[in-house]
Design a protein that fits this description.
2 domains, 10 strands, five-stranded antiparallel beta sheet, Alpha-Beta Plaits
């Protein structure tokens, strides 16, 4: 899986994709997508609660993060830090954090004491109240307030 870039040293990377609290299917999908888009990987490291992928392309890594959020739902955070300069141009390293959810589309959950059904996982989490029938939009930063109904 680890491929080096021609003309670059073996440890070269532009971005880190951090997968946290994700199911195995997310890791498998990530590995398949990296191979499919031919994204060079410097290294893959297991860390507490997930994996860190050191990748050689900022834009492809950002795109992969968006794909993960669209397919699986979850919190996506992208940060960039100045790494240096080359030919007078700023060079940035990007970190893309994808944090998985403990629930999925169609599942029963409790949000602020109210039983709901997860209807969609897109830019935010869309819940449908079982009692009132109202739609509730929850931003990913508040996903910790959603509890899975134990069956």
């Amino acid at each position: 899986m680890v491929r080096s870039l021609e003309g670059k040293h073996g440890e070269y990377y532009e971005a880190i994709l951090q997968l946290r609290e994700v199911e195995e299917k997310v890791v498998t999908f990530t590995d398949q997508e990296i191979r499919r888009i031919k994204l060079p990987v410097t290294k893959v490291m297991p860390v507490r609660n997930g994996w860190d992928y050191y990748l050689a392309d900022n834009e492809l890594t950002r795109s992969l993060g968006k794909t993960l959020q669209q397919k699986f739902g979850g919190k996506l955070a992208v940060t960039a830090s100045l790494f240096g300069k080359k030919d007078g141009k700023d060079i940035y390293r990007v970190t893309v954090l994808f944090r998985g959810l403990k629930f999925s589309r169609g599942q029963e959950v409790i949000y602020h004491g109210e039983k709901c059904t997860v209807k969609a996982l897109a830019k935010d989490i869309l819940l449908l109240s079982s009692k009132s029938g109202k739609k509730i939009h929850v931003r990913y930063e508040y996903m910790k307030d959603i509890k899975v109904v134990e069956e």
